[in-house]
Amino acid sequence: MSGNKDDGGWKKFVWDSDKGEFMGRTGGSWFKITLFYVVFFGCLAGVFVGTIQVMLLTLNDFKPTWQDRVAPPGLSHTPKLDKAEVSYSIKGIETYLPFTKTLREFVSQYDDSKQLDASKFENCPAEPADYKERGTLDDNAGVRKACRFSRTLLGPCSGLEDETFGFKDGKPCVIVKLNRIVNFRPRPPSSNDSIPEEAWPKVQPNLIPLFCTNKREEDADKIGEIKYYGINGGFPLQYYPYYGKRLHPHYLQPLVAVQFTNLTQNMELRIECKVFGDNIDYNEKDRYQGRFDLKIQINSV
Ligand SMILES: *[C@@H]1O[C@H](CO)[C@@H](O)[C@H](O)[C@H]1NC(C)=O
Ligand SMILES: *[C@@H]1O[C@H](CO)[C@@H](O)[C@H](O)[C@H]1NC(C)=O
């Protein structure tokens, strides 16, 4: 269209009454174009709906069909507020209240009083033991029992005696869990090769060990002793496999509490915690796959 055309020319282009054309095309040709698009998009919608229907047919209520997270479980920690940072002042209760509040809410899920029902919970070995098989995912056996996990196992990090989880004494606790993956059986490390030497003593049968250490070389002499609570300071196999939300609604993940008992104050320290196992991987891009970093700073004033 040339710019010189006057208004009449433009109007004539849109609707040419002489030729009975709308934007240069006759009514019949507009009908064909419309019909083409209706049929085209109709087919597209049909293919879309059909694909979803077929997908839904192949999905089983209980067993995840599409699961891309079988091998590498995430490791997560509480408290985790912004930027995986634990920074507070010993003198200021209000500076650590958000952390202790998060911890309190988290461990309350593990209250003994919530695990009384014998139709939902059962006692499992107190020491690391083999996987607790409860049938297969599709054997119609219904809801499975969950192993009890008492918060008293977390000792000084249980929040039962010290409501501040060590924060008030400059010995903060962090509670760690492995994220749930349906039907996943974590395998303990079969050799010490890929494990830092300091973590070797933590390797034992039927246990996925958790080990935390300084992330930066220069913090090596500043993080002090780290204590571990839970079942032998790791994730014991009797809590696996997990059968999923439908079949295992009362499932409790085993916990490990990590207490930093002698951190150097008034400086930022970087800690890395890692789990070790033959089918546990780490990923440069996913900072929570099998490990996590934590920044801690405790101020004395
Ligand atoms: C790993 O090291 C620990 C401590 O030295 C030892 O007790 C354990 O047997 C070793 N495990 C393997 C699989 O070599
Ligand atoms: C705590 O760490 C300091 C050095 O940072 C050390 O001198 C002291 O002995 C440690 N205390 C305990 C109880 O380990």
Automatic annotation (TrEMBL):
Pfam families: Na_K-ATPase. The sodium/potassium-transporting ATPase is composed of a catalytic alpha subunit, an auxiliary non-catalytic beta subunit and an additional regulatory subunit. GO terms for biological process: intracellular potassium ion homeostasis; intracellular sodium ion homeostasis; potassium ion import across plasma membrane; sodium ion export across plasma membrane. Signal peptide: none annotated. PANTHER family: SODIUM/POTASSIUM-DEPENDENT ATPASE BETA SUBUNIT, SODIUM_POTASSIUM-TRANSPORTING ATPASE SUBUNIT BETA-1. PROSITE patterns: ATPASE_NA_K_BETA_1 (PS00390), ATPASE_NA_K_BETA_2 (PS00391). It comes from the Eukaryota. The gene is atp1b1b. GO terms for molecular function: ATPase activator activity. Its main location: membrane. It is found in: Cell membrane; Membrane. GO terms for cellular component: sodium:potassium-exchanging ATPase complex. This is Sodium/potassium-transporting ATPase subunit beta. The chain crosses the membrane at residues 35-59. It is a single-pass type II membrane protein. Keywords: Cell membrane, Disulfide bond, Glycoprotein, Ion transport, Membrane, Potassium, Potassium transport, Signal-anchor, Sodium, Sodium transport, Sodium/potassium transport, Transmembrane, Transmembrane helix, Transport. It comes from Oryzias latipes (Japanese rice fish).
